[in-house]
Amino acid sequence: MKIVEAVKAVGAGRCVLDTDFGQDYNPSPVEGMRMMIGALKECGLGDNDLELAVKTNPARLLGIELSC
Length: 68
Hints:
Strand content: under 5%
Radius of gyration: 12 Å
Distance between the termini: 30 Å
Helix content: 55-70%
Structural class: mainly alpha
Order of helices and strands: HHH
Shape: globular
């Protein structure tokens, strides 16, 4: 999967992953994110890299302090 290759090439610390779900004809944004994370895990992206790219990095960019 090209996304996994790209994340591994530049490092998860430099990535933010999201989806563009939310249209009436697509699953909900939450379900779309769950589907994307599952697909990325199946293609070899590790849990630590996923946490950085979908949680830690976006929070840092938005100035949100994570409590857990």
